[in-house]
Amino acid sequence: MALWLVPFVGLALWSFCRFCCRAFFLRLRLPPSPPLVEVLKFLAGYDKREAHLTYTSWGQRCGQLFSFALPDRRVVVVNSEDAARALLDPHSRKTSERSSLAQGSTSVQVDDARDIQRKLINDEFNDSAVTTYRPMILRKVKQLVLNLLDSPEHYHEHGHTMASSVLMSALYGYDIAGPDDPLVRIMEQSAAQAQAMPGKTAGSSLMLSSLPFLQRLKHWFVQILSDDEEPVKSFDAMDAPLRFVKQRMEKGFYPRSLVSESLTKVDKNGYGDQIIKEAAASAFATATGTITAAYRTFLLAMTLSPESQKRAMSEIDAFMNSTDKLPTIEERESLPYVSAILRETLRWHPTRPLGTPQVATEDNVYGDILVPKGSTIIPNHWAMSRDTEVYPNPEHFQPERFLNSVGELSDANEDDSPLAFGWGERSCPGRHLAGEVLWTAIAMTLANFAVGQRSVVGFEPHWTKGPISSPLPFPCAIIPRADPDDIRQEMYSED
């Protein structure tokens, strides 16, 4: 064992004994733990796997709920949807996002202002308010179709441009100039630097996060790990779009957006610019990556699952023949298989393999297991998506798993996927916006294109590492299903 680990092992053992004593007096047991040697290897950086894969492997031996000790906290990993719903949904008021945990998937540093930011986002993008943005979403998705027509080989970039365009419009009322928009570039660089791990592996990053004095080195690590010669200052990324909105508002002509709506309520609600710009910047960083990754995953799934694609096209064609119009989100109930494809896309390869860490603000109990106050709770979306009892043949892309015997969604009232957006009051406040963007993009893509493999047989997909998991570029042929000029005319038409 490396000598530098000795004092940390001592602290971890002390933490473990403290929690064991509490569990004993409450006549409960702590979640089972993986072998200490494996935990130490993980924390020391010898385990090179992504954290969600390590947690999944441990869960197969320890159960759907397990834990291990850090010097300053206990980490509880939730590996099943049932456990997540039982622990997080009814106890959402007993958990908080106040965690400095950096576990290879995300780093969360929040305070009381976070609740205000969540409320701002939820008020503007809840299931009823988000309908205001449907015309804008449709315009942006139509531009995606045009981009795919012009340069289908750049599909990887087009999905990202679509996501950035929607978010900049919804958050700031800003129409991007193209894939290299300077304002978008500044915001993306800032987000990438904020998410940079202060360690070379998920485990070493986790250990560093548990030592407060090492947190002061985070900015140094970011500069070392960054490919940019000059790190982008976070206040530049937040202030520039805020100034843009304020200038438009002063002129009296501005589209609706999260920032403009929030600014009109500043005096009434008593929060300032800092809350608003942090909420918008956080939403951009989170939602852009999630939407981009999910759309790329959809294209990969269609490339590998031609039968699913054919069934979706048949459903869309029947709808278009009977209504003489393109599928839009208003007709979602008429296209259940398209909705099932979205759900299966988010299940098949979760865009965020690990959910947002939460801290137990009180002792929580699951069965006879104690989740002690102060524990950091991590939902392992990847392990949940591979649960064979819930999802038979989990590696196969099967939208039918979300349909009942008559071809309707098995639960039409459920969100598209808790594996993508979380549970209860701590679920993503922008999930309705993201869901509508992705559904529209999927429906419009399949209405206008056939997605297939280029002349490469048996390729193996590869994925990015980090907080968001997205497929790396793969051989993909995107072929118009109608005359390109007719498709362009349809995209330019006003509905």
UniProtKB/TrEMBL annotation:
<dbReference type="InterPro" id="IPR017972">
    <property type="entry name" value="Cyt_P450_CS"/>
</dbReference>
<keyword id="KW-1133">Transmembrane helix</keyword>
<feature type="binding site" description="axial binding residue">
    <location>
        <position position="428"/>
    </location>
    <ligand>
        <name>heme</name>
    </ligand>
</feature>
<dbReference type="Pfam" id="PF00067">
    <property type="entry name" value="p450"/>
</dbReference>
<protein>
    <submittedName>
        <fullName>Cytochrome P450</fullName>
    </submittedName>
</protein>
<keyword id="KW-0503">Monooxygenase</keyword>
<feature type="region of interest" description="Disordered">
    <location>
        <begin position="89"/>
        <end position="110"/>
    </location>
</feature>
<keyword id="KW-0349">Heme</keyword>
<comment type="similarity">
    <text>Belongs to the cytochrome P450 family.</text>
</comment>
<keyword id="KW-0472">Membrane</keyword>
<keyword id="KW-0408">Iron</keyword>
<dbReference type="GO" id="GO:0016020">
    <property type="term" value="C:membrane"/>
</dbReference>
<dbReference type="InterPro" id="IPR050364">
    <property type="entry name" value="Cytochrome_P450_fung"/>
</dbReference>
<dbReference type="InterPro" id="IPR001128">
    <property type="entry name" value="Cyt_P450"/>
</dbReference>
<dbReference type="InterPro" id="IPR036396">
    <property type="entry name" value="Cyt_P450_sf"/>
</dbReference>
<keyword id="KW-0479">Metal-binding</keyword>
<dbReference type="InterPro" id="IPR002401">
    <property type="entry name" value="Cyt_P450_E_grp-I"/>
</dbReference>
<keyword id="KW-0812">Transmembrane</keyword>
<dbReference type="GO" id="GO:0004497">
    <property type="term" value="F:monooxygenase activity"/>
</dbReference>
<dbReference type="GO" id="GO:0005506">
    <property type="term" value="F:iron ion binding"/>
</dbReference>
<keyword id="KW-0560">Oxidoreductase</keyword>
<comment type="pathway">
    <text>Secondary metabolite biosynthesis.</text>
</comment>
<dbReference type="GO" id="GO:0016705">
    <property type="term" value="F:oxidoreductase activity, acting on paired donors, with incorporation or reduction of molecular oxygen"/>
</dbReference>
<dbReference type="GO" id="GO:0020037">
    <property type="term" value="F:heme binding"/>
</dbReference>
<feature type="compositionally biased region" description="Polar residues">
    <location>
        <begin position="98"/>
        <end position="109"/>
    </location>
</feature>
